[in-house]
Each structure stands twice: as C-alpha cells, then as structure tokens.
Amino acid sequence: VGRGEEDDAVLLDRAGLMTDEERAATIGLARMDCARVRIEMPRLVESLARITILEVACGYGHSLARSSQGRCDSSGYNDRGQLGLGHRATSSEYALVRSLADVRRVACGAQQSLVVATDMLFAFGQGALGQLGLGRRVTGRTSPVRVPVERVTACAAGANHSIAVDDQGGAWFWGHAEYGQHGGLENVSFRDYVDPEYFCVP
User: Fold this and answer.
1) Is pLDDT larger for residue 39 or for residue 187?
2) What does the alpha-carbon distance between residue 21 and residue 87 come to, in Å, rounded to a whole number?
3) For 11-24, b where at least 16 C-beta lie within 10 A, e where not — what string?
4) What sign for the dihedral angle of Cα 198, 128, 143, 95?
5) Following CA atoms 154, 71, 28, 31 in sequence, which dihedral angle do they give, to the nearest 10 degrees?
C-alpha cells in the first residue's frame, strides 16, 4: 500500500472522524447498491436530467459531466478518489464536486480525473505513476488539487498519463511514459514524468 492518503485515512479513522461509508470504501469493502447489467440502448441519465450538460468524459469505471452552470458532476467507481468527492465510496448516481466552480473542461484517465476551472487545472484520483502531476510523493487524492501549470485552456488524459494546453499553445505532459506517449525527445520519453514538463510551443 502506497503512503499518502491511505495514512491520512488511518489517522482519521483512529480519531473517529470517518463515517462508516468512508471507512468501508478505504479498506475496499464498499459496494454499489446495484447489479452489474449491460445497457444496450442509450438511456437518459436521471441524476443529470435537470442539468444542461455540455461535455462528458469517461475513465475505466468512472465519468465526469460538465454543465452550462460551470459545475462538475461525477459518477462511478471511486476506489482511488477519482470522483473528487473527498472519499472513496463508489456512487451509482452523479454527485456534484462541490470544491470546483466555473468548470470549463473535464477529462478522465483510467483512475485519474482532470478539470479546468477558470484557467486553473485540478487533478484527483490515482497518482502512483505521476498522472496527477503533483510530484513524486503524491500517490493519490480524493479531492481536487491544483496542478502547477498556469493559464490552462484544455486538458486530456490517457490510461496513466495526462496533458494540458496553456493559453500560449504550449503542451504540458506528465505521468506514465513506458510507450513514449508524451512524444518527447528520444532520451526522455521512456521514463515517468511526475511533475508537469514543458513540451512544445506550436
């Protein structure tokens, strides 16, 4: 088990500051109150029915939705905090990520999420391979944390890597690099980038 929020969870539990649901999710016992089914035809998402959605993003088992009101809602598997709700309890209905406002872009990797709010980039979820861009000591976050890239206009995420674009057209990348997915120089592409690294100016 990696150090970081897991250690925080143990301290919160010992102090009696964790709910039963959060405790169960932290030790991997939380289950969604639903059955695994295959949905073969599109259906309206009832928990978003009164909200005008402008953009959606899907990860391995979670998704984000951006609304016309500038809010971000998340749903699905949450074992690494990829829903950004401050805990690891999985949700079968969309829930508002309350710490974000003026949301302009959303992206999902396998177990990480990226959100552009105003011109700032936030990340949450799995970070063991550097995909959050928050440095080597951060293995994960359950709530949005600002990534140190300025004036962000767009973002995208692969399985375990991430990229953002600034207002000057510069591309910033970080995370897993086993296959050269960052498009960097030959001598740097095949290592993991845990801090955002400037890539190119068009």
Assistant:
1) 39
2) 9
3) ebeeeeebeeebbb
4) positive
5) -130
Q: Can you tell me the distance from the alpha carbon of 35 to that of 26, in angstroms, rounded to the nearest whole number?
A: 21
Torsion of CA 48, 62, 134, 136, to 10 degrees: 170
Give SS3 for 66. strand
Task: Name the 3-class secondary structure at 9.
Answer: helix
Structure tokens at 98: 């309350």
H/E element holding 174? strand 171-175
Break the chain down into helix, strand, coil percent, rounded to 5: 10, 35, 55
Residues 19, 136, 145: CA angle, nearest 5 degrees? 50
pTM over 0.85: no
Tell me: the pLDDT tens digits for 151-192? 999 999 999 999 999 999 999 999 887 777 877 655 555 667
Task: List pLDDT tens digits, range 57-86.
Answer: 999 999 999 999 999 999 999 999 999 999
